[in-house]
Amino acid sequence: MSAQDSVPTPAATAPIDPIPTTSTPDINAAPHDPEDPETGEIEDPDNESSRFYGPEPDSNPSDGDSALGDYRSTRSTSVSSYVYDYQYENGRRYHARRYSTEYDLPNDEKESDRLDLQHHLFLLTLSGALHRAPISKNVQEVLDVGTGTGIWAIDFADQYESSKVTGTDLSPIQPAFVPPNCQFYVDNMEEDWTFDHKFDYIHGRMIVVGMRNWERFFQQCYDNLHPGGWVEIQDLNFPLRCDDGTAGPESPPMTWSSLMIEGAAKLGVDLSASNRFRDIMSNVGFEEVTVEHHAWPINSWPKDQNEKEKGMWVLQNVLEGLQGFSMGYYTRGLRWRAEEVDVFLASVRERMKDKRSHVYLPIGVFYARKPMGI
Ligand SMILES: C[S@@+](CC[C@H](N)C(=O)[O-])C[C@H]1O[C@@H](n2cnc3c(N)ncnc32)[C@H](O)[C@@H]1O
């Protein structure tokens, strides 16, 4: 991180109103049979993506699913600087283009609200936990790369009073009022990191959409951790899945997913990159590499009540985010016109709202430790 890129936000003077969290049992934590009795599909231990499984569908779906819970969002900071030199494209706002890197999702209010909603979804997925790595209760220096609205960093700082949390992002979209042990900087994580201290825990969530060089990223994590420190990434794994054929490869959601992969790839982003995390982490020198596989059902089609609730949040997340996720990859990557994207997305939304399509997004949690004494 270069000093001139740093735009710290003011220290806290008022408490943050946290998003309500719901603690649910982690049904995904239960071990699954590697040979699916219904499909006979056998898990390939060499293929990370074959380890994702969706939940069991509800054979008797009703329209009576309860409404989404109460939800509040955080607000932006008001620092004035070149980092506010935003770009506007197809009705959405994007980060300032002074960086050598490009991030193809918007950074506007609509996207910030979606990120805060998605934070709740991660809490549902991880039974209310902010992390999986077995970090110390007295963890000290913590880094959250690609922090977005900073909601994870703020929650973490509140929960671990011993910690000093640094959040970095291309965009200064974090709130002005944050806990005293939390600070934010504008920084490009794809450049050389020049922090003046090492960390005990480095966290990144949903940064697959922005990161291009994962080997370099994990190497920088390694170099910037104390011996015994942990790295953890919580991220998506494209393509969308459907285990029972209720959404075929030609269906709008699956077509959308394939085109997302193609468009992102044209811009140097690999939406399936997390398949490689286990190997990259090991190659860099991390130990105790651990991977957890989760599924985000799109809509309330699963049988299990917790999965059903999660599915409603996922649907809301996707409906609110679909245009933001897609517009950059489709127009910049695939060279579609914005109007074509909007027409196509309407059909994707329609099909996602149909509970007969048992589609889910694989989500992985990856963590590992830098060896002691290095
Ligand atoms: C999908 S958002 C996730 C935000 C946050 N981690 C969360 O889970 O709520 C991805 C974030 O990564 C940031 N980002 C993308 N590329 C980046 C880069 N090269 N350096 C720093 N941040 C980046 C984006 O600005 C965006 O805020």
From TrEMBL:
Domain of life: Eukaryota
Biological process per Gene Ontology, one example term: methylation
Species assigned in the record: Lepidopterella palustris CBS 459.81
Keywords recorded for this protein, A-Z: Methyltransferase, Transferase
Alphabetized GO MF terms: methyltransferase activity
Start-end of Low complexity biased regions: 8-27
Acidic residues bias: start-end ranges: 35-47
Record's protein name: S-adenosyl-L-methionine-dependent methyltransferase
Residues covered by region (Disordered): 1-74
Gene3D superfamilies given in the database record: Vaccinia Virus protein VP39 (3.40.50.150)
CDD domains tied to this protein: AdoMet_MTases (cd02440)
InterPro entries listed in its UniProt record: SAM-dependent_MTases_sf
Pfam families: Methyltransf_23
